[in-house]
Amino acid sequence: MNNKPARLVIDVLNPKKDDIFKEQLKSVTQARKKGNKIIVIDAGHGGEDPGAIGNRLKLKEKNIVLSIARLLHKQLSAYPGITVYLTRKADYYVPLGRRVEIARRYHADLFISIHTNANRKKSYRGSSVYCLSEKGASDKASRLLAKRENASDLIGGTIWAPDNTTKAVLFDISQTSTHNESVIFAKKVIGQFNKLYPLSMDQRVRTAPFAVLKSLCIPSVLVETAFVTNKQEEKLLSSKIFRAKVAGRLAVAIIKYFYGSKYNIYHTVKRGDSLWKIAQLYGLSLQQLTKLNKISKSGTIRPGQKLRIKY
Ligand SMILES: [Zn+2]
Asked: Domains in the chain and their CATH numbers?
């Protein structure tokens, strides 16, 4: 397997991470009580598993997707009625089954796994969205992609044993309604990514047996944002403004999925926010943000104020 020397992997329980998990479970209960939608965002790979690596800038998938996931987390956290959790917050590896378990234990309403694509052919480019399929992949490329993404646990070097409830869920295959919901959300993502210049979006919702989508009872999609092995797209992904736009488009897809397509997205101003910071967070220019909200560039904002965000 991938030319690595033989090694002994010792799984040590990390009390700090476990405490964070328990703390988060408390906040999940509170969020549920308030009637919030719970979204789990999964940045693929991490730690020993770098994911795909770019040809020119040598960008690593694990870092790109963590950046997008964090931006999306920040954007959605400024939105009332939505509570967001990340499966990993930094550069460490989380086994695929554990990611599924986090979504399940948090009773997520939506699970999004973020990746970047790769191919030996440097001309391959564009974005695509995937849902789970137990029956097999929609095409050969999707099957190979799922195989590669599923190999993460081998590279990440962590062994994970699902608890009994997760096992039971994994064997319950009568989840057609969840699949339909996943497809509805995937189409919203396609609709938004269509406007993400200059990416070319695959218009079909593809299916493949991705291990990380196997929560089955939670609408789940995997987004391949762009090809890190393509020169132009690697350059795009290296830009924080572009990553903020990718996150912003995902945020719009999420809001429209839960609240309807006519719903507009806005940012609730927090203490310490500035117009410039907010514009950066969404990948907008200061001018775009101020014009949209009919305020001057030097205008003041106050905590609690709602600013429109539009692309
Ligand atoms: Zn990946």
From this structure: 15-259 (3.40.630.40), 265-309 (3.10.350.10)
